[in-house]
Amino acid sequence: MGSASSGSPPGRHPAGVEVMSVEQLRSRIGRSHQDRPLRPTFHHLLTLVRGTLWHTVDFTGYALVPGMWLWVRPGQVQQWGDLHEVDGTLILFESDFLDRATAAGAHLNDAHAPVVYEPDDADHQRLTSAAEHLSHAFAGPASSRSTCGRPCYGTCWPYSCSAFRT
């Protein structure tokens, strides 16, 4: 995958998706990546658990706080705000990672879809749970299974994407 982070997914995970904490992102990108606009070729989904992040997408500024989701689509210009006062989860994925039905339901290729999403309580719980499962799946092999025993990224991700339907 390209670089929000300058790295590629670890070999033990499926090609086309990577999940990391904001802390991991801070350690992987230099200040130069935060200070200049970037045009990634893959999706960024970001949610916070602490702090306020000012993030620019297509030259419009957004204040992201816990409970909100930021979705930067391929080709959009983004610029990171100060990552030192926030914590959260970043999910990076290629456009072809999701199956067609999930991609259609999530409006994956909608260039006019909202950048910031504030889910209702039910969707918030579903999205938070999916992000937690994905974080555990990417933390290491021992934690990469859901309670049903299947790989977490295969069982929870499609359901969380449906929460972004408009």
TrEMBL record:
GO molecular function (one): DNA binding
**Superkingdom:** Bacteria
What name does UniProt use for this protein?
Uncharacterized protein
* Record keywords: DNA-binding
